[in-house]
Amino acid sequence: MSKLKVYIKNSQRKVKIPVGMRLLVRKCCAAVLAYEGFGSDAEVSVLFVDNSEIHRLNKLYRNKDRATDVLSFPLGQDGHYDVNCETGAKLLGDVVISMETAVKQAKMYGHSLEREVGFLTVHSMLHLLGYDHETSPLDTENMRKKEEAILSELGISRDSTFVENT
Hints:
Layout: E1 4-10, H1 21-35, E2 42-49, H2 51-62, E3 70-74, E4 82-83, E5 90-98, H3 99-109, H4 113-128, H5 137-153
Parallel strand pairs: 1-2, 2-5
Antiparallel strand pairs: 3-5, 4-5
Helix pairs in contact: 1-4, 1-5, 3-4, 4-5
């Protein structure tokens, strides 16, 4: 069985990271690799940031002068990845999640923060594996189906994680 190392760092102070969020992120990363049949040891880095930092990164690396919810920085291309020479693990890349935007989107869509961060993690992991929803409507549909299937396997599907209004 292949191993997965997920490095998680919180570099923002605007949103308190709920108990269990790091475990959820690790489970989401592992679920994507299992769903895609990725049979090698792997490493991925996940960084929680605020809107100002993701805005800075989005402008710097994508020339988009605005905040976004998540950024993916793949280290591989066409199934070829750099390898950690000490562990032999494939270095998939970096995921950067704006916790401020995740909170806002969870409220907007009427579901939990955990579901939103789970979705953003799965979405970004698929990008690290080479999927791109910006290339065509068919690619967008294919990626969305994979995201929902993986989240459903984790028990955090769209239908089961809506917040009750009390």
